[in-house]
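Predict structure. Chain length: 681.
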Amino acid sequence: MSQSWKTTLLECTLAFVWFALLSSALTWPMVMHPTEVIVGGGELGGWFWRQWWHYSEVKALEQEDFGLWGSIESLIGLGRFPETGNILDILLFTFPLREWLGVGLDHNAKILIILMGNGICGYVLARCFTNSWMVSLAAGSIAIVNPLVIQDINKLGLRQTLLWWLLLFPALLKRAGRTGTVLDGMLVGLCFSLISAFYWFYGLFAGLFGLVWLLWFLWTTRPPFGIARRWISSAGVTALLGVFFFLMPYFSANSDESGKGGAEELPEVTFFVPYPQYDTIVTTPQRPTSYRENVLSSLHRGIDSAWPADYVLDPRHGVLAFPLAVFLVGVLPAFRVKKARIWLVLWTIFWLGTLGPFLKLGAQKDTADVFMLGDYVVRLPYAWMFQYIPGMSRMFAPYRMASMVVVCAVILVAVNMDRLNETWKRWGGFVLIFAIVLQPFYRFDLEELAEWDAKPSMWRIPLQISAMKIPEWYQELDSDGWEGIIELPLEQQQDLLCTYQSIHRRKVYRSWATVPAIPPWIRHSGGGLEGKRMRWLAKSEPRGDKMEDWFRDVSRNPLEMEWSNFSSKDLQILMEYGDYRWLIVHQRGYYLTDPNQGDVLYRDVVRNLTSVLGLEPDKIIEQEAFEWPGKTEQFPVGPAWIPWASQEVQKPVQDMPRRYEMAIFDLSQWNNSALLERRVE
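Prediction complete.
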């Protein structure tokens, strides 16, 4: 083996080891307790349900004989119809890991793979702009330690944390521009296709990035027309074919014979429509009742999820702060470095995009409160992107444009530090690594801790660590059974209930399993036993279901409702039509409905249901405080209980109960003839 190969192998080994250690540190203590804790929180419960549903679709597809091409088309089109696509990370990572490792461990392994892959691809990208492996290590670390990755792992948007193809895209563009070959052009197109297939909006960002870079490239280098046409056309054709391949499910969704669930039914898809005024959006009701209100409510997310302008230089933004060292070393010097200016322009474009439609600063982070100049709201370029760039009208999370901020930051650090001599590169890279890694682990935002937080520390683990706690009652249900469950309250705890459903696989009243969520090819028949179960899970309630309003009153206003309006006949109809056997009341759900009266609401509902049904429920502990690895305090000071809910209880943790109860009514006992005769008498 030659010295150069030995050196390359050593560098690659060191890079792999470093990124593995950094990924492990970021997810600590998961690497020491991979089966006891789980990385992330937020919408974790909802994503577990979606992955289980997709998994069921794959199992149903295995029972159909569509041929190779038909099976591939059906596979890439899986998802929540009509919003098909963008589950390639689930197909390629989640399902194989689930078959190998099981539920829970597959999730943790996937996060480690994504983080390490980000670092390695960031290293490769930086190596295209510098000959220093230490500088490349520092730049690659940015792809792991940045607010986008940390926030989306905590919120469980894992497909948005996978930056591999975005990081390789500029490297392939640079190479194609240098060589001008058809093959390199095709690699650019293939990379763009993968970016889009994993997440459509990243494809949109990559397209904008590539267009700006290409105009700069043609203007500054003025390559021979024939050479430029050769690689650009091959890149374009490959990208179009690749994107079309992954877009096929959208076209098939449009042709669904039911006339429902097609891509044309997607809300908020508009083009060349001005972004509404700030006052119009913030006055929209939180629970929309019309199409217009639904659109405005979605646009409200564009304000909430935007980042404050100073997140790139103020570490007090906590885990939502970009490493300050990157701004000082990579961004600021770029003003004076000719080779870095195009990357600075691109960094600025996407940084402005992360700020959303209206300016926010420091104290207004993570809120809908924007910076005001008197009565004037400062309008930002994102509002024009929304109006004039096709597809941006459905991008309700501006902060995700930080994906390209990360990519440009990797390049800027590499380009600017490459000007130094070898000694400065080596030691400067080492110091930069230390500064990048240190920031999210150190609490610059300590003053923002609530007064009731226990044992505040100057150090923290940036990623949220949760625990998988499923009540034993659900685990003991036969997952092949055909008896459904009605769970109260109906609202506020959908993530919780649907996560339970992914374990027990029973029909749940008003769950996310609906007919449009079933792929058209098994919506009416086929798919073997798995397809049959999916159709049963998604079976609509009886026409004119009279119990829905009654259950919603029980869920929302139990203290004010008339319990005498209960109709045993209507409940019987619902039970027989939907195969429902159990009615379950969740104490935790009522704390989500009203944190100050949760226990009062729960006990009132259980007492009144006991009266109108003539049944005594079984009462069991649903969740309770527990010790968890890596933390000495018990929950709720510890991790979030998983499965979590669609909203958190806004109440000091010391005032929350140490355990939550659930009451289980077995309606088969209520529905037997003896009880019916007794009620008639």
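Summary: The chain has 28 helices and eleven strands.
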